[in-house]
C-alpha cells in the first residue's frame, strides 16, 4: 500500500513502479495523459490570472508589498483588456476537461479538481491498459468520443495561444510574484509552462517526464497489478494507491488487514505549506501525525515499513531560494538552513516516531527520494521491491 498525505507523491511512485515492471502498459496509456497535461496547463494559467485579479483588488490595502502591487496596477490594464480576453477561450475549457476526466462526476463545493478512480484510463483510452489492443472493436465509445473532442479542442486552443501563455508566464510582474512566493501554483505548473511550446505542438504526445509531473488527485483506492519475477519465481504484486486527503483516509482501513508492506511517503519540501483541507495544519506536522498513526496501528503490525522522504529536489530549491525552515517549524531553531541539515532533521523526527510508536520493532527502510527523477527512483524501486518480497518470503516461509 502506498500511504501519505495528499500530494506526497504516491501516484507518481505508482507510475514509477509501472515504468519499472510494466513499461509497455505505460506506453499504451500515453495518449490518455494528453487531456490531463492540458488540464494541468489550463489550471496553471487560470490560477495566474486569478492571482493577478486578487492582487489588484487587494493592492490598495497592502503596504508590505507595495512594489509588487504597483507594478501589477500599472500592468493590470494589459491583463484585463488584452491577455485575459485572449486567454478566456482556453480557461473556458477547464471545467469541461475536468468533468470528462472525472467521468461525469462533479465534486460538490467550488471549482472541481480532477480526481482519478481506479481504471480511469478506460475512459480516455480505447482499452484498459493491461489488455492487448483488439483491432476488431471500434476504438471509442460515447464517453471517449466526448473526451476526444474536448481534448482536440484543448489542443487547438492551446496551439493558438502559445504566445499569450508565454507572455503571461514571462511577464516581469509574474516573475516578481513568484520570486517573493506571493504566487502559489501547483508544484508542477512551472514544468508545464516552461515546456509550453512542446506541449502545444499539434502531434504532441506526453513523454514519461510529462506523465510523472502531472497532477491528478486520487479518489478512493486504486488497485494496480504487477507480475514480478524474482529468482525465477513469479509473484503477483497488488499495489494500492490511495487518496491522501483527510476526507479520504477512512477508505484506507479496510485494506490494512491484508497489507504486506506499507510505503509511506512524506514530502520534505512541504515545510512551508499547510493542508488544503485544514489551513492551520502545517503539512510536515500532518505527515508526522499520520506516520505515528500508521506505525502504531495494530492492523498493520505484520506489514513491512518503508519510509520515503520525498521531494528532495523541491526541498533543495526552496532552501537555495532562501526560504527559512525556522519560520514555519520553530523547533528547527538555529540549525543551518541547508539541505544536509534540514533533510537529516526531518529524517531524525520520523525515525524517532518509528522507534517510539512501533511496538513490534519492525525494521524501517528509509530513503530520500525525488519521484520525478527516473534514474534515481528506478534503482530505489528495484531495491525496495526485492527487499519487501524477500523479507515477506522469509517471514511466511514460502521460499
Ligand atoms: N518536484 C517533485 N515533484 C513531485 C515529486 N513527487 C511528486 N511530485 C509531484 O507532486 C504532485 C503530486 O503528486 P501525486 O503523486 O499526484 O500525489 P499523491 O500522493 O498521489 O496525491 P493524492 O492522490 O491527492 O493523495 C504531482 O504533480 C507530482 O508530479 C518529487 O519528488 N519532486
Ligand atoms: Mg494520488
From TrEMBL:
<keyword id="KW-0460">Magnesium</keyword>
<keyword id="KW-0807">Transducer</keyword>
<dbReference type="Pfam" id="PF00503">
    <property type="entry name" value="G-alpha"/>
</dbReference>
<dbReference type="GO" id="GO:0005834">
    <property type="term" value="C:heterotrimeric G-protein complex"/>
</dbReference>
<feature type="binding site">
    <location>
        <begin position="310"/>
        <end position="313"/>
    </location>
    <ligand>
        <name>GTP</name>
    </ligand>
</feature>
<protein>
    <recommendedName>
        <fullName>G-protein alpha subunit</fullName>
    </recommendedName>
</protein>
<dbReference type="InterPro" id="IPR011025">
    <property type="entry name" value="GproteinA_insert"/>
</dbReference>
<dbReference type="GO" id="GO:0005525">
    <property type="term" value="F:GTP binding"/>
</dbReference>
<keyword id="KW-0342">GTP-binding</keyword>
<dbReference type="InterPro" id="IPR001019">
    <property type="entry name" value="Gprotein_alpha_su"/>
</dbReference>
<feature type="binding site">
    <location>
        <begin position="212"/>
        <end position="218"/>
    </location>
    <ligand>
        <name>GTP</name>
    </ligand>
</feature>
<keyword id="KW-0479">Metal-binding</keyword>
<dbReference type="GO" id="GO:0007188">
    <property type="term" value="P:adenylate cyclase-modulating G protein-coupled receptor signaling pathway"/>
</dbReference>
<dbReference type="GO" id="GO:0001664">
    <property type="term" value="F:G protein-coupled receptor binding"/>
</dbReference>
<dbReference type="GO" id="GO:0003924">
    <property type="term" value="F:GTPase activity"/>
</dbReference>
<dbReference type="GO" id="GO:0046872">
    <property type="term" value="F:metal ion binding"/>
</dbReference>
<keyword id="KW-0547">Nucleotide-binding</keyword>
<dbReference type="GO" id="GO:0005737">
    <property type="term" value="C:cytoplasm"/>
</dbReference>
<dbReference type="GO" id="GO:0031683">
    <property type="term" value="F:G-protein beta/gamma-subunit complex binding"/>
</dbReference>
<feature type="binding site">
    <location>
        <position position="218"/>
    </location>
    <ligand>
        <name>Mg(2+)</name>
    </ligand>
</feature>
<dbReference type="InterPro" id="IPR027417">
    <property type="entry name" value="P-loop_NTPase"/>
</dbReference>
